[in-house]
Amino acid sequence: MSEWLTWLRDLPGRQPAALISVLASEGSAPRGAGTRMLVTAGGQFGTIGGGQLEFRAVEQARAILAHPAGTWRVQDYPLGPFLGQCCGGRVRLLVEHVDPAGLGWLGDAGEERVLVTRLGQGGIERRVAPDGVPTALSARGDPPREETSFAEVIGQRRRPLYLFGAGHVGQAIVRHAANLPLRLAWFDTRPVFGTIEGVTVVPEEVLERCVGEAPEDAALVILTHDHGLDYRLTAAALRRSPVAFVGLIGSATKRARFMARLDRDGISAPERARLTCPIGVAEVTGKEPDVIAIATLAQLLGLGRT
Length: 306
Fold this sequence. Notes:
Layout: H1 3-9, E1 17-26, E2 36-40, E3 44-46, H2 51-64, E4 72-78, E5 90-97, E6 113-120, E7 123-129, E8 149-154, E9 159-164, H3 168-176, E10 182-188, E11 199-201, H4 204-213, E12 219-222, H5 227-239, E13 245-248, H6 252-264, H7 269-272, E14 275-276, H8 289-301
Parallel strand pairs: 9-10, 9-12, 10-11, 12-13, 13-14
Antiparallel strand pairs: 1-2, 1-5, 2-3, 4-5, 6-7, 6-8
Helix pairs in contact: 3-8, 4-5
């Protein structure tokens, strides 16, 4: 995730801080390349995996705060007897005393951009590009030195989640989706739910237009209070150009009834096959709203990239 970008945006004018970045890892390592944490004299934000690795890295980070802003070091850690860990992998870290004057690039950092980093003699220079080829760094061999440049993807892409229904399950999905790579559009037709943050209350005919306007990489999850409305939204979702996911809350009986009706209404077999009902990973069978929500979000995270 990209919380570290928010930490850096909040940094200027506050206490000195050091940024720990995982440049590369191999074998059984707790976190992968791109993982970061921010360390101050009295606190820390995020984690690179805990244990002795993180303890030593935090020590190095606080030590570098005694040096001028912009100072950086590359540290290698074999995750074996040296650290009292049994992972057996290797991790290469970049530890830097953050220079607030060098954070201008943050204004260009958005969803899924390429960050180019250059390790300079007087500090670290960064710039953001809209695209590019990430650099695969190694956890072995000679570490990066002055004048080394490398690129990485930052600002994780968030899949649009069009959520139809603000009842108990809808609210549970939103609660648990707060820190996931999803961009929420949440709708209901009932005015009583207009007081819930994030819910857009619209007439039923507008809901169907929202289905048609969702981008092709969107996940559509239908769980309204009314089976008739559920059906109309499902039919609209299956008739339009394919999206990444069309999910409908319900039982196997509800699925069978909807499938038969969709067939009668001219929805083809390939179109009907795009419907996921019931929603949620099959191995999770609980009916509580939070259980359904977590199982559904796990299913959405498993969609991968489109």
